[in-house]
Amino acid sequence: MRAVVVTAALSCLLLAGCSTTGDLGRPRPNIFADQLAPAIGDWSARFRGEASSWFHLTDDEEQLRTRAWRLVLPAHEKSHFEREVSKLAHARILPVEAQSNDVTAYQRALVSGSFASQASRYNRLSEDANGDRLLLAQFRANALRVINADRARLRTLDASQLLPPEQRDPAYDRVAENEGLMLWVCERARFRSKSYRYALEALVVEMPSREAVRAERAIMGMESELGPACTLPLIGVFGGKGQGELSRAPVVYKG
């Protein structure tokens, strides 16, 4: 059975590598992104014992996942293999543990190929850090709306005498998915910050430039948003420690 999962994941990796991307790097609508990947991902997640809810996503939950996409993928588009692995983790075909934790990968992609001036590398680093800073602030506001909705969801579920028992597990599973996504984004954002720091230090050692000051400020700005984004008032359902008990390990993300 495990061989089947590996084979499916490798097949999807080939398909994902041929897919085009739309806004924020997300796959453009196609049969793989819209039908095959979600179906295989849901099956793979259940096989791993992860929570999986069949509930429809709310508008805020959809938006949260769209904003998370950029932050959970490698920052540089030239990190081809790492990006494809992250896409499969995003679709739940692979576990998130399959993602790379190599802080040097961004710097290698940043300086790959020819370039006229080192300023272009510093500028790209500044742009990536600034973009993450803005997105983290938006993500946090979105996450707070989802958390408030989840609290209302669970309060209603616990108080209701009309809803059937089969509504209970999917509700707690969805809250676990939402909380897991927030924790995942936080973890990958911290990894991005470390990758930016490494890239800046490597650039200064190899190609000292006054542009390093602007890049340093951009990274500091991103780091200032990490605190609020990673200090959310989670309910605690993720991991089975909150108001509900999960018999299965919670998923980190469901898109």
Give a quick rundown of the structure.
The protein is an all-alpha fold.
Number of helices: 8
Residues in helices, as a percent range = 55-70%
Low-confidence stretches: 241-255
Averaged pLDDT = 82
Question: Any key phrases for this structure?
Answer:
255 residues, 0% strand, mainly alpha, disordered C terminus
Describe the protein in words.
The relative contact order is 0.16. α3 packs antiparallel against α6 (118-159) and α6 (118-159) packs antiparallel against α7. By secondary structure, the protein is an all-alpha fold. The chain is elongated. The chain is built from 8 helices and no strands.
Present the secondary structure layout.
Elements: H1 2-17, H2 31-47, H3 59-72, H4 80-90, H5 105-110, H6 118-159, H7 168-206, H8 211-229
Helix pairs in contact: 1-2, 1-4, 3-6, 3-7, 6-7, 6-8, 7-8
